[in-house]
């Protein structure tokens, strides 16, 4: 694999920064900011409630009447008793039977469909095996070298104390941010 000038400079700068760069710890969580007071929207006037219908008025009155005589019963049991009284006073009228539906006219059979031709498959793009691969970016090159360095640093630590790959990546990213800041300050 042929190296370009850009990748050579990154590698040399990475070696220089290894000697100069202090160890970077994982970024700490930020302290929660004080919440700003919320501005309340002006409250709308409450909508007028619909008046209670005859059934609701009857049930409310009966529950209030039955409550002192049935102290151990729950509200829903009292409502059921009041509902039974309502049904006794207002018997339901039998519903009129619905007229039978007229039978639908039989459908005419459809003509059989002609079989469709199978769709032509899209041809895959031919990949030139001799085509050179895209060169990795400076970030990718830096992260690969930083991960290798971090793995060497933690090689002698016990298995319980070794950082996971995600933690190593966070440390490598922190090193990249420090390295990027130095590059930008030079430019």
Element layout with pairings:
Blueprint: H1 5-20, H2 54-66, H3 75-89, H4 138-153, H5 165-186
Helix pairs in contact: 1-4, 2-3, 4-5
Describe this structure in words.
- Among the domains are: 54-89; 136-187, no CATH class.
- The chain is mainly alpha-helical.
- The mean pLDDT is 80.
- It contains 5 helices and no strands.
- α2 (54-66) crosses α3 (75-89).
Task: Describe, in short, the structure shown.
Helix content is 44%, strand content 0%. The protein is mostly helical.
Give short descriptive properties of this protein.
187 residues, 44% helix, 0% strand
Along the chain, the helix and strand elements come as HHHHH
How many DSSP H or I helices?
Answer: 5
The residue ranges in which pLDDT falls below 50 over 5 or more consecutive positions are none
Can you count the beta strands?
0
Gross morphology is flat
Distance between the termini: 29 Å
- The residue fraction in helices comes out at 40-55%
Radius of gyration: 40 Å
Strand residue content: under 5%
Mean pLDDT: 80
Give the structural class. mainly alpha
The largest sheet is: none
